């Protein structure tokens, strides 16, 4: 799994845990729905950490909680 996939999967997982849609997440975070969808559908291959922080704020979680999962722990080094 690559980092982009891990981020996408984590956003979807958190939406499921909070029982909200992608549009609701965008609303809670104060972001345009297209920004979130661009991350999920791969148009944004390198989402800014600030964008992820804003999503976390909308979910009332920390960045640490967002990234503290086995999927992120298992990521291999990626070369650009």
Automatic annotation (TrEMBL):
Signal peptide: none annotated. Transmembrane segments: none annotated. Residues 11-66 form the HTH cro/C1-type domain. It comes from Candidatus Fimenecus excrementigallinarum. The lineage of its organism: Bacteria, Bacillati, Bacillota, Clostridia, Candidatus Fimenecus. One of its GO terms (molecular function) is DNA binding. CDD domains: HTH_XRE (cd00093). This is Helix-turn-helix transcriptional regulator.
